[in-house]
Amino acid sequence: MKTYRREFKKDFLWGSATSAYQVEGAAFSYGKAASQQDILSENSLFCTTETASDHYHHMEEDVKLMKELGLKTYRFSMSWPRIFPAGRGEPNPEGVKFYHQLIDALCEAGIVPIVTMYHYDLPWKLVEEYGGWLNRKIVDDFANYAAFLVKEYGDKVKHWITINEQNIIYRMWTRKNYIPEELQKDEKLRYQMNHHYTMAHAAACRAVRAIRPDVMLSGVPAVEPAYPRTSSPADCAAAAAANMMRNYFFIDPYMKGSYPVQAMNYLEDQGLMFRMEPGDEALMKEGCCDFLAVNYYHSVCAKACEEDAVRADTALNLYGIKGSATSFETAPGLYTLCKNPLLETTDWDWPIDAEGFSYALTDLYERYGKPMMIAENGLGARDILTEDGRVHDDYRIAYLRKHIDALHDAVDKGVDLFAYCVWSFMDLMSTSNGYEKRYGLVYVNREDKDLKDLARIKKDSYYWYQHVIATNGRDL
Ligand code: BG6
């Protein structure tokens, strides 16, 4: 660990995060209608959204645990179909009330609520009605939903995040969105869908600011800095291209209100250019964010690739067997991703790279110059509840320690950082691996196919993070 020359801010928001469909449960009750995640998870190899961590019924207990942990902020998402079962029209009073109760409980506990408006759970009704995100109609519906949230909760919530991980939504488009099978190979449509997200974000910012110019807005991309596989100029250019196509292409619209030219030229040359409508460029400028929230899990490694290479996605390692991810994302003529031989990985082949965290934060701060928050950072692992009734997750403590150390390094280098959220507060259903892969500081006693008693059990990492918060990040 290094010697720090600068402290975290006095009012630094030490936090933790979750998302609605991954924790709430009560997926089809209290007036909530299905989301696309409820439907997609019906065919999951792991578990469904029906109960998840049953946060809906354990909300008060969960907030008590947050308070005891000493959290200064809790980032959670609101479920669009819990608020508007049909995507628009009449709100569901029970859903609206649930989030008031959660926000009130947090405020009473002295915890600042930070709200994500959208974390993959689109009302299924809108998929049935017009294809969801594939249709431009979504832009107005999302803006109306965003405006409603800020009207309803804007007195109590200052920081709002529009869309969670638009770049991952693009990258894993058939997992994060319902895409009919016959369309799944349509690469141009995939970019078109991404543009609808960009415009929905911008339209939401405009609608929200018209109601409450005092709220603070951001989107939240997952940032994955790309390193060159070797120091050859071709590999260095490949890494720069990977940063452009995988990070800046998604973040520039939020921070600069435009897509980067290089990326647009590439899409045009590849026959992948999406349709922009008159007025889009002006509206994108209205989507510029007040701060930049990012999620960070790992870096990637890139090498040069021929123009006639075949476009491909990285194959997911779904079973947590180290080394089983063998095919990698390829953008013809730009880059192909590859394993970084210098980094350890998790069982799911995610590289562990704390230095990349500091590197990414300093790079983004230099590029955009806005205050930053880390909306997610954490380790997915198979946790074991031992006979002493504890979870000894020293591997998670080691991961978080290194990453908070890197965060401190970024602060030392001058990054204006105001919040950090561990993913996740409690165990939740991982987006691809259910309860096989856990992230929580608090263990939830259930398995994918056995609900057990859903008891909350504080892991060793909970106690460790409690001390980190108490010392404002000085003692790791
Ligand atoms: C982020 C998402 O991509 O990564 C979370 O915002 C997700 O929803 C987290 O849980 C970890 O990914 P996974 O697939 O391991 O759950």
Shape: globular
Distance between the termini: 9 Å
Strand order of the largest sheet: 5-4-3-2-1-12-11-7
**Would you list the SSEs in sequence order as H and E?**
EHHHEHHEHHEHHHEEHHHEEEEHEHEEEH
Structural class: alpha/beta
How many beta-strand runs?
14
Strand content: 5-15%
Ligands, deduplicated: 6-O-phosphono-beta-D-glucopyranose
Query: Biggest β-sheet, characterized?
Result: 8 strands, parallel
| Overall average pLDDT | 97
Q: What is the CA-atom radius of gyration, in angstroms?
A: 21 Å
Determine the fraction of residues in helical runs and give it as a percent range: 25-40%
> Which regions contain 5 or more consecutive residues with pLDDT less than 50?
none
How many DSSP helices?
16
Can you offer a commentary on this structure?
With 476 residues, the chain is an alpha/beta fold. The chain has helices at residues 20-23, 36-40, 55-69, 80-83, 93-108, 124-130, 138-153, 166-171, 173-176, 187-211, 233-255, 261-269, 280-286, 354-368, 394-412, 460-470, and strands spanning 13-17, 73-77, 112-118, 159-164, 216-220, 226-228, 292-295, 300-303, 330-331, 335-338, 372-376, 417-423, 442-444, 456-458. Strands 5-4-3-2-1-12-11-7 form an eight-stranded parallel β-sheet. Strands 6-8-10-9 form a four-stranded mixed β-sheet, with helices on one face. Strands 13-14 form a two-stranded antiparallel sheet. Helix 3 (55-69) packs parallel to helix 5 (93-108) and helix 10 packs across helix 13. The longest helix is centred in the middle third of the chain and has 25 residues, at 187-211. The chain is globular, with a radius of gyration of 21 Å. The mean pLDDT is 97. It binds 6-O-phosphono-beta-D-glucopyranose.
